[in-house]
Amino acid sequence: MTILDKEKVRPVEGTSVEFKDRLAKLQSLRDAGINPYPNDFKAADTCGKVGNDCGNATKEELEAKEIRVSIAGRIMAIRDFGKASFVHVQDRSGRLQGYIKKDILGEEGYALFKKLDTGDIIGFEGRLFRTRTGELTAEISRLRLLGKGLHPLPEKWHGLVDVEARYRQRYLDLMVNPDVREVFLKRTAIVRFIREFLSGREFIEVETPMLQPIAGGAAAKPFTTFHNALGQELYLRIAPELYLKRLIVAGLERVFEINRNFRNEGVSTQHNPEFTMLEFYQAYATFEDMMDLTEEMISSLAMQLHGSMKVDYQGTTLDFTPPWKRITVRDAVLEYSNADKAIFDDKAAALAFSKTLGLTVPKGLSHGKVIQEIFEKTAEHEFIQPTFVTHYPLEISPLARKNEKDPSLVDRFELLVNGKEIANAFSELNDPVDQRDRFEGQLKERAAGDVEAHEMDEDYCRALEYGMPPTAGEGIGIDRLVMIMTNSPSIRDVILFPLLKK
Question: Is the CATH code 3.40.630.30 the one for domain 3-162?
Answer without folding.
Answer: no
